[in-house]
Amino acid sequence: xxxxxxxxxxxxxxxxxxxxxxxxxxxxxxxxxxxxxxxxxxxxxxxxxxxxxxxxxxxxxxxxxxxxxxxxxxxxxxxxxxxxxxxxxxxxxxxxxxxxxxxxxxxxxxxxxxxxxxxxxxxxxxxxxxxxxxxxxxxxxxxxxxxxxxxxxxxxxxxxxxxxxxxxxxxxxxxxxxxxxxxxxxxxxxxxxxxxxxxxxxxxxxxxxxxxxxxxxxxxxxxxxxxxxxxxxxxxxxxxxxxxxxxxxxxxxxxxxxxxxxxxxxxxxxxxxxxxxxxxxxxxxxxxxxxxxxxxxxxxxxxxxxxxxxxxxxxxxxxxxxxxxxxxxxxxxxxxxxxxxxxxxxxxxxxxxxxxxxxxxxxxxxxxxxxxxxxxxxxxxxxxxxxxxxxxxxxxxxxxxxxxxx
Length: 406
Description:
Blueprint: H1 2-8, E1 9-11, H2 36-39, H3 55-78, E2 91-95, H4 124-136, E3 141-145, H5 155-165, E4 171-176, H6 181-191, E5 195-199, H7 205-212, H8 217-229, E6 235-240, H9 249-258, E7 262-267, H10 284-294, E8 299-300, E9 309-313, E10 320-324, E11 337-340, E12 345-347, E13 354-357, H11 358-362, H12 369-381, H13 390-393, H14 401-404
Parallel strand pairs: 2-3, 2-11, 3-4, 4-5, 5-6, 6-7, 7-10
Antiparallel strand pairs: 1-13, 8-9, 9-10, 11-12, 12-13
Helix pairs in contact: 4-5, 5-6
C-alpha cells in the first residue's frame, strides 16, 4: 500500500511539495467493506409505516428513525469522504475530457494547452467504477464536465450507466458550453440526465466570438430554449469581467423575465493560462448594487447548506439569479465538492495544486477497493480549511481551468 501511495501522488506545481502526501497508509486504512454491489444500499434509509391508532408502533418507528439517523451520521463521520474539519463531501465533479470546441480567454491560453495522451485519460468503464465507489461512500450528486463533455462520443452512454448502476444518485448533471445541445439533449434526457449548466458570458453575438474565439452564440441560445422546453431549469453561468461584459448585468436579469433559467454571475478567478488582474474582477457586492439600482425590489431567496450560489430574483420574473462569490466571500466552510480530472487525478479543492492519481491506482495490479478508499481518505483528510485568498491564488501555480473541469 505504501508503494501504491508513492506511485499515485501527483502535484500540479512545485514537485517538492509531493512529500507532504507521503502519508502513513495505516492511518487511513478502513475496516473491510463489502463490494460495491453489496454496499449500494448502505445509505438508503428504511421506510416504515404506522397509523395514529398504533402509538406503540409509532414509538418504535420513531426510535428506529432516530437510530437510523444516528447511524447515518456515524457513517458520515467515519467516511473517507469526511475531512479533518468535519465536511462531508457528497458532490463529485468528473471531467470527461480535456478537449473543447471553444477557446475562452479566461479558461485557456490562446495557443491552447498541452493535452494528455488518450491512454492517460479515464475510460468510460473507469469513470463508472470510480463513480460507483464514491456513491457507495455517500456521494449523491455527480456533475460531468470537461473541457467540453459533449465532444466525448460516449457521453450519453456514461450518463445512462451512472443512472442505471447507482440508484442512490439524486442527480447527474453536465456543465457544457451549449454548442451541441440541440443535437444531444433529447438523447441525454432519455439516458436520465437530471440537470444542466450552460456557460454563456454575453448576450451579444459579436462579444461571444471575441471571448470564445469561435462562432455559435445563436446555437447556444437555441440549446437553452430547448432545455426549457424539455422541462429543465438550466443554470446559465456568466463570468463577469470589468470592461468587457459588466455592462450586460441587467440584460442577464432581463433574460429571467420570460425564461425559467437560473443565471449565476461568477467572480473572475485566477488560473494558469489567464492573465490575472484584480481590476478585471467584478465583485458580488458591486454586481448586486448595479442590479438594485434598476430593480429595487430584487430580493434574496433561501439557500441550501452547501449551495455555492447566493440566490435572488426579481418578483414576478419566471427565472432567478445567483452569485458565486469564490473570491470576495468564499464558501470553503460548507464545501462538499470533490473533483476528478480527465486524466484521473483527485483534486480536493478547485484552487489546490496538489493532486492524487486515482487512475494509476486503478491500473495498478492488485489494487483493491479498500486501497482506493484509503487513497481517497488520505487526500480528503489533507484538505485545507479554506483556499489561500484572492491575492495569493493569483501567484500560485495550478492547472488551466480546462484541465481541471470547470
